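Appendix B, Record 12. Input sequence as logged:
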Amino acid sequence: MTMLLLRTLSRSSFASSRSRHPSYACFLLGRTFAVPAAVADEEAETVMFPREGSGVSYGLNWALAGRGVIVKDKAYYNLKMSELEKHGTGKIESMSGLILYMRGNTTGGTPDISKAQFGKLLKQVASHISSASSVFVQDGAISSSPTFDAKVRIISDSSSALLPLADVLWKTPTRAVSHDSSPLTVYIASSISGSYINIIQHFIAIACIPLGSEKVSFFCSGMVILGEEIIYGRAEIYQHISANCHSSKTVENIGLSPKPTTAFAAVDIERSSLILCGNAFADVNIIKDALSALAAPIISARGGLPLLARILVSGNSVILLFAPEDTIKSSSDLHGTLLSMDVGVVLSSHGVMPFFQTKDRTVPNVLKMPAAIIFASADSTGALPSISKLSPGQAAYHFLAGYQDGKFTPAYIKGPSPLEPLALANALHSQLKDSEIPTFLINVNDGGKHINGKELLKLVQSSLSADLPKSQLGANDAKVGELKGKYKSFLSGRFEELPEEFSF
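Logged structural output:
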């Protein structure tokens, strides 16, 4: 019965894709979203269809329908670079500083988007991709280990938009995403108009700003929706806002500049989805931040510990380095020893592995356990020595603080994250106790002088030696006492209760 139903649905969807008017796509979305993506992927693998060829795979079409994308003509899957070039892949100019909206962020730093807003935006983007004559699908993974990874499926209206993500993600076997229990999905609507993107962004930003006696709930299908009533089309939106917004702020002050924005990104952790509108696919930093945030809970659920650190290789030893971005950039002597400039690793009982693809293709999927873990901190007062060996409790404490000359960056997380820093600190503490990995604190601003990359590398390498200066972290000194007070004040204010084992 199931087989008969699948064949019937696939034939009817194939026939309707040729006959339906593009404007009807939004009405079909309500039905397609009722099919769970994982179920659709799994069932699609069991159905065989005739007359399949390049760009024509009914199984793939059925899987895409489960994600809200109805293939209009052709869908291309995991094309090679040479094949992508045939479809018009050109040079991509990199971008930076784009806006990332996120639902499920616990660390701050990004504007929020509600569940309803993301859902309506997703339907709009899926409808836009469905209107493209060709859809491009690429699979990959975050983390080089198939045991502790997060599978990713990219669905794009453009072959060019796939390239930046293909350079970031690890290769994964065919059907690995289809058989995965919790894959991530990236939707790319690169050809959506700039003015349209601008309007969508504005209505994400002003979802609760009073307009007269009403509130804008969201913008969908080119209309402003007040409550349940559709009142205006796109051309009248700005006029309505200007006339009815009784706020002391101007339209520009509340983020409603008439200048169109070319791109933005939105993430929903619960839906395991990333949306890239316009040329947001060209902002690799935003993509990595978003993918890291999406992958973290999945990797954690699979037994890995996702950490924002870098892998440093010194001789035959692997070292895990936690350091601020500024420290890494200014330490050029360190760059040659880093496995990758990208931040993001998975620490497990089997070893350590990078989040993103490295340039060195000879690197094994899983590297051995770190010989040492280094936390780079900055203190110009002289309270912190140049290098100190830490107990697991001290390591977790300094990791949780992420102290940098008066500022704190818990768990060294500068960007968005769905995981609580304290939960990560507890997990790291357990890992350090079990594995007995030596951990060290290095002061990169010892005595008010910022050490250079060569000096930092020397200190890092000295962590592998037993000949280390005696730790002064517990010294009875006024400067040490003052710094301890800063730590305690911040951590007690940020976190309700710390484990007894955590200490300065």
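Residues 1-50, 207-260 have pLDDT under 50 and may be disordered.
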